[in-house]
Amino acid sequence: MPIPNRFSASGPSPLSPAMGHYDGDAAKSDSTDLAEVCREIYVGVGGDVKVSDTSGAAVTFKNVPAGSFLTGFFTRIWATGTTASSIVIGV
């Protein structure tokens, strides 16, 4: 029997929390975008996180502390330029 989900009827909005989570370390790539746009990135082990956003801009968040969340609409987590690890992406 499925677990009841009282939030399923409301649907996602840009302000709602992520509804699915994936291994961000496995998704790091210099040539391939994420399977879908993500709305948050959790950083388990601190460092730099280089991302591309939906405008196509690439930016590096420097010295992101462990346990931090980066919020936005991201299309790629770059392998080169990302030193942080234990990353989880939320969609």
Average pLDDT works out at: 91
How much β-strand is present in the residues?
A: over 45%
The string of secondary-structure elements, in order, is: EHEEEEE
> What overall form do the CA principal axes indicate?
globular
The SS-based structural class is: mainly beta
Helix content: under 10%
Domain tally: 1
Descriptive key words:
single chain; 6-stranded antiparallel β-sheet; about 45% strand; mainly beta; about 90 residues; globular
Can you offer a commentary on this structure?
There is one protein chain. The protein has 91 residues and is mainly beta. It has one domain. 4% of the residues lie in helices and 45% in strands. The protein contains 1 helix and 6 strands. A 6-stranded antiparallel β-sheet has the order 1-6-2-5-3-4. The chain is globular. The chain starts with 20 loop residues before the first strand and ends with a strand.
Briefly summarize what is shown.
With 91 residues, the protein is mainly beta. Helix content is 4%, strand content 45%. The protein contains 1 helix and 6 strands.
Task: Reconstruct the topology from this structure.
Layout: E1 21-23, H1 24-27, E2 38-45, E3 47-53, E4 58-64, E5 68-77, E6 85-90
